Amino acid sequence: MVPISSGFVTVDDVDINNVSPAVLRRRLTVVPQESFILPGTIRVNADPLGLSSDASIIVALKTVGIWDVLEARSEEGRSCLDTILLESPLSQGQQQLFGLARAMLRDSAVVIIDEGTSSVDSETDLLIQKVVREKFKDCTVISVAHRVCKISARL
Q1: According to the model, what pLDDT value does residue 155 have?
Q2: What pTM was estimated for this model as a whole?
Q3: Which listed CATH number (3.40.50.720, 3.30.110.40, 3.40.50.300, 3.40.50.2300) goes with 10-144?
């Protein structure tokens, strides 16, 4: 995200210095250790650019196991996706899961996950690893982790 001062980085044999920052940002998704929550609804937080259908958003949130938590916090008579997220804050681990769901909704060639399992229990860690293997199988995934991860295809 910061211009390179020396050397080079290539993705699929393309020097990223030759790619516009706007294109690079669209094709690269980062899931930070401390996932951000925007002012607004669950829908806006899951898909800030408004490119995904409600059904796709729900599938992503169900896939990471957070849909039931969000649905339980929604206001009666209102769609869960219309719930204001900051009015019902998520735990750090839930925010990490939400950030992973957000990444699933983007069409990215490269996904960078920074400490994606740092605030979750071992069961959720396994879920995250499974989701990454299945949902990002056609992407280059760079995962920064201090915890040793099992990378094999079988769990």
Answers
A1: 42
A2: 0.81
A3: 3.40.50.300
